[in-house]
Write a structure and sequence with these properties.
The structure is a single chain. By secondary structure, this protein is an alpha/beta fold. The protein folds into two domains: 79 residues, Winged helix-like DNA-binding domain superfamily/Winged helix DNA-binding domain (Arc Repressor Mutant, subunit A, Orthogonal Bundle); 163 residues, 3-Layer(aba) Sandwich (Rossmann fold), CATH 3.40.50. It has a five-stranded parallel beta sheet with strand order 2-1-3-4-5, with helices on both faces.
Length: 284
């Protein structure tokens, strides 16, 4: 993960000290400038000491500021030069289109960098063997949870999803050891999600968390953490980039589970396809 500077900073930002967050934010806002700076220059620009720049680099997992700059340079070398950034009120439709599409594309690219394939495999394995898989998320994450439920149902997995936190707590209280809870939270600090994960752990249920922040409360409580790396703007009410990243992880889990149970999954897909597209004549 330390090979990728910007996705790493994005995920670790909330867990940094306030002075280190100043450094991290400056790096994210001026990445091209930082590549050519010394630690002293960056400290002056961010309004902190040189030692804080070094400590921030180490908190992010680098040996020092030089190693951080090398990773940052690699990030920038792989990026494109089309329109990025926040949508402004006077932006024309073509600029808005570029910014939205590019933000989503970067979210997918950065998520692929930080997502651990071994943890993805482990999560899919637990889901394939579970008696029940329950998905839970609030707001836009809840929409992704519903999508996950319908996907797994199509391949014969007993999948559930509740959008009301009280109903979800009720459902989790009746889950059994070996069942799986998949919780989605961009911040990893949504109180309802944290409460549900805590109850699931006490019931002996396997817990999987899909989040943007590896040091969040939800991540620390979960058995397996699947990381996204999506940057959200002040218009986060739509949770656009984070939702795209979460959906892609769900798609990966769906395919892995289906491959684990290939014959059964393919048979279920045929039956469910007939059920929804061949209603005139019923099932064959």
């Amino acid at each position: 993960m330390s090979l990728y500077c910007l996705p790493l900073i994005r995920g670790k930002l909330p867990s940094l000290r306030p002075s280190e967050q100043k450094v991290a934010r400056y790096i994210m806002e001026h990445p091209h400038d930082v590549v050519g700076m010394s630690s002293m220059q960056l400290g002056a620009e961010a309004g902190v000491s040189e030692s804080t720049v070094v400590k921030c680099s180490q908190s992010l997992g680098f040996e020092g500021f030089v190693q951080l700059k090398l990773a940052l340079a690699r990030d920038l070398a792989a990026s494109t030069s089309t329109a990025f950034g926040l949508v402004e009120v006077d932006d024309e439709p073509d600029v808005i289109m570029q910014k939205v599409f590019n933000t989503n594309a970067v979210a997918l690219s950065d998520t692929m960098k930080v997502l651990d394939p071994e943890r993805l495999r482990q999560a899919a394995g637990l889901m394939a063997e579970a008696g029940t898989v329950s998905f839970f998320g609030m707001g836009a994450s809840g929409i992704v949870a519903l999508d996950a439920k319908q996907k797994l149902m199509r391949i014969g997995i007993s999948a559930e999803c509740e959008l009301d936190p009280h109903l979800m707590l009720t459902r989790v209280a009746l889950m059994r050891e070996g069942d799986v809870l998949v919780a989605l939270s961009h911040s990893g600090e949504t109180s309802d999600v944290v409460e549900v994960i805590g109850l699931a752990r006490s019931m002996g249920v396997h817990t999987v968390c899909i989040t943007n922040h590896p040091d969040s409360t939800a991540a620390k409580l979960s058995d397996i953490v699947l990381l996204t790396s999506a940057s959200e703007s002040s218009m986060r009410g739509g949770a656009t980039a984070s939702r795209i990243a979460q959906l892609s992880i769900i798609d990966c889990l769906f395919v892995l589970v289906a491959m684990t149970r290939y014959d059964e999954a393919m048979g279920c897909l045929v039956k469910t396809r007939q059920a929804v597209s061949g209603r005139k004549g019923g099932l064959q």
